[in-house]
Amino acid sequence: MFGSGGVRGVGPRWAGDHVPPDSNEPLEVIMMSALSTRSHPGDVVVRCRDLTKHFRYHEQQPGLAGTVRALLRRRHRTRVAVEGLDLDLAPGEVCGLLGRNGAGKTTTIKMLCGLIQPTAGELSVLGERPSRRSFTFLRQISVIFGQKSMLWWDLPAYDSLLLHRRMYDLSRSEFDLAVGQLSELLELGDLLSIPVRRLSLGQRMRCELALALLHSPRLLFADEPTIGLDVLGKRVIRDFLARVNVELGTSIVLTSHDMDDVAALCPRVVLIDHGTKRYDGDLTGLARSVRPAKQMMVTFTAEPQLPDPLPPGVTVVGRPAPDVLQLDIDREWLAEVLTAVSGWGPVVDLEVTDADLDEVMVSVFDGFPEQRSPGESRSA
Ligand SMILES: Nc1ncnc2c1ncn2[C@@H]1O[C@H](COP(=O)(O)OP(=O)(O)OP(=O)(O)O)[C@@H](O)[C@H]1O
């Protein structure tokens, strides 16, 4: 909990909760009141039906001749980025949007946060139409793009925070409280006072998160927030997002190509392919439907004596060394196989795991047809 790390009593009360910073209420009471103003049973924070986005753009061949030709005769193309997406998100839910490059994840996020307007479909986010971009709506959401900075490049991040304080109309005490807590949670130290262009990627991302969370949004869109970070940098961001979700009840829509992010943060995943939803459910369910077998790595004292035929439910998928076997095992035969393996030779090590999530995603994407161009249509 935010409170247990040295910020007890002020943890979840970020700017916007309008609780005086010197309140002595117990943390749990504060949290309950913070959460009760944020979510109502039966609410949905996101609801979209048949959400569709087609981009219309004109084609241009490279080179001067191409530029001239494009000026004289414009050929328009339409690219289908998102097609017929239905999605409901409950308060406090964390949902991972998965899909290969170009699947439509960022386009979906941009529509949900009001940056671009859908071509068709119904969309309601926190009870509002995002493209209206009302202050009430913008005050309750936040977005962080791993590949774009919201911070002023030449100024210390603190100056960007001050600007956001004005934009979100936060009082000085709300601002100081939020900055203090975020600095502690994100281990910012003196980073806020260094010009952003001098920060490393990991340091900058922590400052980006502080900026995104300054006004305590109810809904956070995080588009690849850990991209390019090392394992420790990723962990800081995952832990932070998990705490924001659990302790503040903030709903999160996350995209990431890092399956460790997804496994750590997203009980629910929505798989998008060519702009169309292909799966909506829990990650384990997806993994098991695609790669149902358990993986077993067994190390023997010497080369094992394998029976012929092998027992039912076992496939040898690799032999990294003469005394090591890599097996795929049907779940229902697991107990029998565990017993049988010890009869093949003295076992010194044995590891049973589910399929690696990256492998699962490779299988999922392999099952989809290649990125097609029929998603595009031409008009002169
Ligand atoms: N402004 C635009 N004009 C034309 N096409 C666009 C535009 N923005 C996105 N697209 C196209 O829409 C499709 C979906 O793009 P999007 O950025 O949503 O994919 P993504 O799933 O976020 O991919 P990635 O994982 O690579 O970030 C792609 O084919 C992309 O080229």
UniProtKB/TrEMBL annotation:
Cross-referenced PROSITE patterns: ABC_TRANSPORTER_2 (PS50893)
Gene Ontology CC terms: plasma membrane
Domain of life the protein comes from: Bacteria
Claim: Transport is one of the keywords in the record: yes
Pfam families: ABC_tran
GO biological process: response to antibiotic
Name of this chain's protein: Putative ABC transporter ATP-binding protein
The species this protein was found in: Microlunatus phosphovorus (strain ATCC 700054 / DSM 10555 / JCM 9379 / NBRC 101784 / NCIMB 13414 / VKM Ac-1990 / NM-1)
